[in-house]
Amino acid sequence: MKSSLHIAIYYHQLRPRILRLVAMYEQHFLRLGCEVSLIASTPSRCGDIQQLTELRGHINELVVMGGDGSVNIAAQVFAHSDVPISVVPLGTGNDFARDNGICGTRWRLQDTYEARQVAIGQCGEHIFVNHAGAGLTVDLIRLQRPWMKRFLRGGSYVLAILRYLCGPYEHRSTVHDLDTNAWHDAQIVAVSRFIGGGIPVYPSANRSEGLLQWAAVPRASRWRQLKALIQVLRGRIEQTELVNLSVGTQFMIGDSENIIELDGDSFDTGPQQIQVIPKGLTIYVPIQQSKD
Questions:
Q1: Do 173 and 198 belong to one domain?
Q2: How many domains, the chain?
């Protein structure tokens, strides 16, 4: 009997590996009797959002083949929707997939998966699935070269941070906190355990709890910031004296002089209010097999 399910696959069309996976997934769903729509990404973020918006009321599942940027675009459309998203991690960082226990590129071809509602964040009218950042994380966008992402993948973020620490102070996007009159080299509000290719900025995060963590790194010597970075990479941000932390459901981020980025893409200047959206996104995740 023919299935009544309609599944859309949103993918990056310029990567040969992804094209092979698209064909594999398309044939898999067709064999199950599903209707399949293929949505190729374009250079226009707004154009991609429009393409997905036109499908919102007509599909039963969206398969996203890409990285955190692709997941972010999908979330702009499918937040607050009961249409589940299946993420096939094929980006540089893949922090959303990592945070939700998704690994490998063929997991959705199996029957061992389940639906889960997870928390995401909102900054003004924009959705983010991992973090919002000002200062350091915006500078890292500039410091990462295409070849770094291509060959180093997640390691490109760490190399960019080292370039940042060794670079001139005057090139940093330092953020002024009006409430405390302090200057921060970084402000990060995270809903995910990981950002930047697996850097554990919020190790205790649990998306089912619907909490955000605000982290601020004050201006300090390069040596103190390097020691703090080593602690963060070890998953010990909560024991790092230099980093100021707070947990809650809403925070302010940024200032009027600096850009704010969401999941690695730059948006508006601040200050902006950040809030959590509990159970804001429905996703499919692989069922973890118990070990005897």
A1: yes
A2: 2
pLDDT in tens, 118-152: 999 999 999 999 999 999 999 999 998 878 877 77
Both 156 and 246 in a single domain?
Answer: yes
Same domain, 110 and 195: no
- What tokens does 246 get? 């707070």
Residue 125 lies in a domain: no
pLDDT at 96 over 80: yes
3-32 pLDDT per residue, tens: 689 999 999 877 778 899 999 999 999 999
Name the percent of the chain in helix, strand, coil, to the closest 5: 30, 35, 35
| Residue whose C-alpha is closest to residue 92's, from 140, 149, 139, 15 | 149
Give the Cα separation of 45 and 50 in Å (integer).
9
Q: What is the CATH number of the domain that holds 97?
A: 3.40.50.10330
Which ranges of 9-88 does DSSP label H, i.e. alpha helix?
16-31, 45-55, 68-78
Task: Flag whether pLDDT at 229 surpasses 90.
Answer: yes
- Name the helix (H) or strand (E) containing 125: none
Q: Are residues 148 and 214 in the same domain?
A: yes
